[in-house]
Amino acid sequence: METALFKDRLEQAGLVCGSHPQSELPGDACGLDCFSKLPPIGKQEIRSRFPEGVLTRDTQDSRTYRSTSGTSGERLTVVTNFPKREAGRASALHVLEVATGRSLGASITDIPPNVCNSVCGLEGPPETSVLRHIRGGLKNGSWRSEKFRSDLNGLFERRLMFKQDILAPLDARSISDLSKQMAETWDLLDTGRPYLLRAFPQYLLWLSEYKAQRTVGSHYLKYVMPYGGLACDSLLSRVRSALGVETRNMYGTSELGSIAVSCDNHRAMHIIESFFEVEIFRDGKTVPDGQIGEVVITDLTNTAMPLIRYRVGDIGRILGGSCACGRDTKRLEILGRVQETLVRSSRWVTASEIGDIAYSDRGVNNFRLDQISTNHFELQIVPSFFGLSPDVDSIRSRMEDLLSEGGGSPTKITFRILPFIQPEPNGKYLTCRLRPSSWVR
Ligand SMILES: [Zn+2]
């Protein structure tokens, strides 16, 4: 009720009425029935009311502002307070604990698609050393402030609790140069000897197959984790067999932090239910567990800038029932982004289904499916850097089956074999570039 945006939305949903005076939140009397009437909200609406309409009263809770860059180029500035950042650190530790059984002392190497996203992301202040930070705080008197302590926490975590290295992104624009970059990256990994490697999915694929061509694995590396929860099963199974490692899946966004993590090689991830309420929507309503829809998340810790029923822009489903590991949280599967999901005969075709077909062929190192017209697609394929040729006819027929409209005019897929695919401006690759008229609504 402190933010104009949510006050308006509560009123529009009929949730602020005679029994709920304007100054009060809808209370327990309403319960979840009341909450369930609040429609989800998108990035665009939040951005259009930023900052006055979306921030709560500043109670000196040590707020920081941070901009995120979405794949679609939609930027969102998120304001976090001290408790939110502490919750973010706790969930980052929890993710490591569930994924690898270790949270402290594990050495981690990250290869993000865009270095700034993770170095300047939710994880903490700009890099410096712990000692330099303490010296600076004593010198300028800021050591008493909450921000100083919060930043010290973050630095302590990255520099002393974990040995975290961040390596430069790979640039795949020329194969000879990429081989050189991969050799350099492996030299750095062999020196740092990380226990866990986190990277952009395509980087994991290229690096693992490059390594498998040359040596027998890397004994120090036990776990590999793709960013974003979007890597498809066939890509991850290639990484596992090339490197002899286990893969773990995690899901998080820069505006929300770590949301879910897998306990084994599967795609489904345990939701951190103390910090997030995750729901799946289709046609404006929540769907039963197991059904595919749009992922909608409520952040239970950020009271500086509430995100209530926030549409993160991903497609997924929730799996109920207990997991073999004994944890009884709901599990989340992320299947692609909204802009990469298309409706064919009222069926939703997700990026992960498309990716599974393409990457199950070991001759494919990268690809993108572009929609030319309703039933005409062009599949751009970057063939394996290691001499294997893709079986184009088999991929074509499986994709045409997946994308067929059933009864309508047949789906046609043309091919282009390319030496590289240009990443999006934020360094990531899209699985599909669809016409907006084909997206799910
Ligand atoms: Zn489990």
Radius of gyration computed on alpha carbons: 23 Å
Query: Can you tell me the CATH topology of the domain at 339-438?
Result: GMP Synthetase, Chain A, domain 3
Provide the CATH architecture of the domain at 339-438: 2-Layer Sandwich
CATH homologous superfamily annotation of the domain at 339-438: ANL, C-terminal domain
Give the class-level CATH name of the domain at 339-438. Alpha Beta
Mean pLDDT: 86
Biggest sheet details: 8 strands, antiparallel
Unreliable sequence segments: 117-125
The helix count comes to 12
Order of strands in the sheet with most strands: 8-9-10-15-14-13-11-12
Query: Which structural class best describes the helix and strand composition?
Result: alpha/beta
Q: What distance lies between the first and last C-alpha atoms, to the nearest angstrom?
A: 29 Å
Would you mind describing this structure in some detail?
With 441 residues, this protein is α/β, with parallel strands linked by helices. Among the domains are: 38 residues, no CATH class; 100 residues, ANL, C-terminal domain (GMP Synthetase, Chain A, domain 3, 2-Layer Sandwich), CATH 3.30.300.30. 31% of the residues lie in helices and 24% in strands. The chain has twelve helices and 21 strands. The strands form five sheets. An eight-stranded antiparallel sheet has the order 8-9-10-15-14-13-11-12. It has a five-stranded parallel sheet with strand order 4-3-5-6-7. Strand 19, helix 12 and strand 20 form a beta-alpha-beta unit. Helix 4 packs parallel to helix 7, helix 6 runs antiparallel to helix 7 and helix 10 crosses helix 11. The relative contact order is 0.11.
